[in-house]
Design brief:
10 helices
Amino acid sequence: MAASDRLLGLVDRVGEVGVGVLVALENLFPPIPSEVILPFAGFRAERGELDLVLAWVAATLGALVGALVLYALGAAVGSDRLHELAGKRWFVLVSQKDYERGERVFDRHGAKFVLLGRCIPLVRSVVSIPAGVARMPLARFCAYTALGSGVWNAAFIGAGYQLGQRYEQVDRWISPVAYTVLAAFVVWLAWLTWRKLRRLRVNRISA
């Protein structure tokens, strides 16, 4: 039995609660595919085996719970600690100047990042961490997370409801987008690493 089949079996066993649990876990373990879970919930609702509105509410609450865990993680690490790490020679992802620049951008546009990030594959699972680091007001974070997640969940549950037994087509539509985002993220990380290493080499030569 495929892993996705086992996950969907949870929905069949515990209904709307299973939808919420899996969506919460998706925030912490991105390989759990909400693009499969949510349309499946819509398909089951179309057959009368789940309540459509309750499935959407459970999915949105699950998304909020998972996001709050990552928000707490970011808040626990904190801005000062990340700024200190960015100054370490071995921390190749960003420099302190990059971090300071990113912090200023998030201070101005953090709400947009949280809201829109909830509707982007892969990004939706990690966007809560910088919000926690920046200590975005919790009420605002919850509101934007619930709104963005609610739109995402409604779109995919609704697609499963409309497609019926062809709900798996949703995953085939969204997978290329998810892989493109992942590839862009890997390229971005590689570029950041190369730039940090180049700066270290230049600094050694200058010294």
